[in-house]
């Protein structure tokens, strides 16, 4: 199939390692016709899109310079690309020109005043996180599951998502159901090689982005998100949002509504493999420790809050935003770029 491709459009290139771009270049030349085997990208036209003011590649334990060195701008092929700048924001009205300039200054770092802090307009600030939650999750919205499914709040870090996702379900009617996972240290026969561990209790507090919390507290009406591909043909994929309808078989089976296609879906526990590899660098040596688990979980996580990186894959009618001294960010309403829809928690002291 690749040798019949004429054009490849690659979005969010700023998040990709230059090694990924170089790997694709070699692959396309390998499968190209002999006459194009020595042509850049095998003669395929490459269209790259991205914003260097957004996320850069994530490299565990790297320095800032190592992160910059890994970007596609440092690839040997970057000089062969022609850069076109998109300078018209079609989401913005003419009345939002001032906000547009302010937003660009945030991305370019022109309005930092101290210790990487920026000055936010007072119209974008609220005193507490609870004020922001009350602002978006009104009683009318909480009683309308169809509207609730079209709303989300954004924050930057996974640990903030986990904490804030606990607050919103408390406002929903009905009793809370605790869905408890099982953490089992893997053995050699599982095909995962990790450190031996006699007590799995320690792992209950590990909250990697790829796994749901050990105890998932949800109610009927809660919005959840799949963390694994379950059935691609039924649009039950990693990142799909669902609304919980009911619990069955002693809470071992969840009936949900797929918010992508409106169809019912039944979710049960599944084995989720987790391997955490950490490399420790010393002055004279370097060693790697690996922890591997087999985790029968539901493969779901609560989804009233999401990280801004995850939001790129889906659209919402309502997005709201919050930033505080610890780095939390939350953006709001129909068009997240409008200043009236961006809020920050004001930090005192």
TrEMBL record:
Residues 3-110 form the DNA helicase Pif1-like DEAD-box helicase domain. It catalyses: ATP + H2O = ADP + phosphate + H(+). SUPFAM superfamilies: P-loop containing nucleoside triphosphate hydrolases. Keywords: ATP-binding, DNA damage, DNA recombination, DNA repair, Helicase, Hydrolase, Nucleotide-binding. Its EC number is 5.6.2.3. InterPro entries: DNA_helicase_pif1-like_DEAD, P-loop_NTPase, Pif1-like_2B_dom. GO terms for molecular function: 5'-3' DNA helicase activity; ATP binding; hydrolase activity. Residues 208-247 form the DNA helicase Pif1-like 2B domain. It comes from the Eukaryota. Its cofactor is Mg(2+). GO terms for biological process: DNA recombination; DNA repair; telomere maintenance. Belongs to the helicase family. This is ATP-dependent DNA helicase. It comes from Cylicocyclus nassatus.
């Amino acid at each position: 199939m690749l040798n019949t491709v004429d054009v490849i459009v690659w979005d969010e290139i700023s998040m990709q390692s230059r090694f990924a771009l170089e790997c694709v270049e070699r692959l396309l030349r390998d499968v190209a016709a002999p006459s194009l085997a020595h042509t850049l990208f095998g003669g395929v036209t490459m269209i790259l899109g991205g914003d260097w003011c957004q996320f850069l590649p994530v490299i565990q334990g790297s320095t800032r310079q190592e992160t910059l060195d890994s970007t596609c701008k440092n690839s040997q092929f970057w000089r062969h690309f022609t850069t076109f700048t998109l300078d018209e924001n079609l989401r913005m009205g003419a009345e939002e020109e001032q906000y547009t300039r302010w937003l660009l200054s945030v991305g370019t770092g022109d309005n930092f005043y101290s210790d990487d802090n920026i000055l936010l307009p007072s119209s974008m600030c609220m005193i507490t996180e609870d004020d922001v939650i009350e602002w978006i999750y009104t009683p009318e919205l909480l009683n309308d599951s169809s509207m609730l499914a079209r709303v989300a709040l954004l924050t930057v870090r996974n640990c903030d998502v986990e904490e804030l996702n606990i607050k919103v379900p408390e406002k929903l009617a009905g009793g809370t159901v605790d869905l408890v996972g099982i953490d089992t240290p893997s053995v050699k026969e599982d095909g995962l090689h990790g450190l031996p561990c006699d007590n799995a209790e320690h792992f209950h507090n590990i909250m990697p982005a790829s796994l749901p919390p050990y105890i998932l507290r949800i109610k009927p009406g809660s919005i959840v998100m799949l963390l694994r591909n379950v059935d691609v043909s039924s649009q039950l994929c990693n990142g799909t949002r669902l609304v919980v309808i009911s619990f069955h078989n002693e809470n071992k089976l969840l009936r949900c509504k797929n918010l992508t296609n409106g169809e019912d879906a039944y979710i049960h526990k599944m084995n989720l493999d987790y391997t955490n590899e950490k490399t420790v660098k010393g002055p004279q040596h370097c060693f790697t420790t690996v922890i591997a688990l087999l985790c029968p979980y539901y493969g779901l996580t609560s989804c009233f809050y999401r990280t801004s990186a995850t939001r790129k894959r889906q659209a919402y009618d309502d997005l709201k935003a919050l930033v505080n001294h610890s780095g939390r960010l939350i953006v709001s309403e129909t068009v997240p770029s409008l200043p009236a829809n961006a809020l920050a928690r004001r930090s005192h002291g």
